[in-house]
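Batch job 17 of 40 flagged for manual review because the log was empty.
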Amino acid sequence: MRLVRRGRAVAAVAAAVLGGASLTGCGAPSADGSSCAVGPGSRVGDGTATLVPVSDRCPAPVLRGQTLDGAPLDLSDFRGSVVVLNVWGSWCAPCKKEQPDLQRAAEVLARDGVRFVGINVRDSSKPNARAHVRRYGVTYPSLFDPSASLVARFRDLPPSAIPSTIVIDGEGRVAARMLGATTYDELLLVVGQVT
């Protein structure tokens, strides 16, 4: 995929890539039953984005459930495509702030086959979450995960803040994580380095 570069912000983020940061941790066994530990990664920009080298990527956990509209969604159906997973809540101010950038990136990156999926957490009812989706014109699906049980399955590189964004490569492996609100430029930069 060709990385779309727009404005000075992307150039500044690209120039700030730092190598050698070490990620540690081990979670659930990989799909073949062996354990998988995340090795060295590199931090991007202000350090809230982490890229995982191809050789150190672990399989993403099984994620399936119902969307906010009640339709079934299984992340394994997107195998072969890069998937951007955004963890959000309708009650979360930084989630509201980043939503226009996420939607814009989803539209631009769809041209390259990148899929976006939300994981709505800690909302007690679907109507609140659906109101958020309508307000911001979100066109991609979101899994409804009020107890955050789906999010808890990410053990090697957990989305430990709300919002968080995880990028899964075409082989179904966790390739990047962005903690806190992300931006259009950061999304394009990180996804461009994953594909």
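Reviewer: the log was empty due to a logging misconfiguration, but the result itself is present. Helices lie at 7-15, 93-109, 126-136, 184-194. Unflagging and moving on to job 18.
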